Amino acid sequence: MSNAEVAQQLLSDEDLTYLETKGYSYDVSQTDGLVCVVIRNLRLPPLYTPSETDLLVRLPPNFPLAKPDMFWTFPHVRLANGAFPDKADQFDVSYQGRQWQRWSRHFEGNHWRTGSDNLRSFLATIRGDLEKGA
Asked: For residue 70, which of 105, 110, 112 has the smallest C-alpha distance?
């Protein structure tokens, strides 16, 4: 089955349209009950090195009714000063033959709005977090 066919089975039409509209290169699969979306070559703010990374989000069962949590990057990302970003110094997820850097973000200040939040809003939350550079 092609990536496009898998994505159609695992993501909503709205999420697929968003990924396509943004021009993302992405892969979708299901592993251990989670829908894994990898966005390839995501441009990072200039606060980080490298300037691009692959971004992994793992969507829980019943997404978008259930809120996603955390995200992962590969290759590993550092701040411009060489330090790891806050709560992003663990490499405990193996996926697609790579050890991914976990960004332990629980987005406590953001309330998941069941029925209106989706992959687009989760990616916007991630982007906002990356823009902070912490």
From this structure: 105
Q: Average of pLDDT values for 77-81?
A: 94
Instruction: Give the C-alpha separation, 114 to 18, whole Å.
Output: 18
Q: What is the 3-state secondary structure (H, E, C) of the chain?
A: CCHHHHHHHHCCHHHHHHHHHHCCEEEEEEECCEEEEEEEEEECCCCEECCEEEEEEEECCCCCCCCCCCEEEECCCEECCCCCCCCCCEEEEEECCEEEEEECCCCCCCCCCCCCCCHHHHHHHHHHHHHHCC
Task: Convert the pLDDT of each residue in 80-106 to its tens digit.
Answer: 999 999 999 999 999 999 999 999 877
Q: Could you please state the CATH topology (level 3) that the domain comprising 3-132 is classified under.
A: Ubiquitin Conjugating Enzyme (3.10.110)
Q: What is the mean pLDDT of residues 26-44?
A: 95
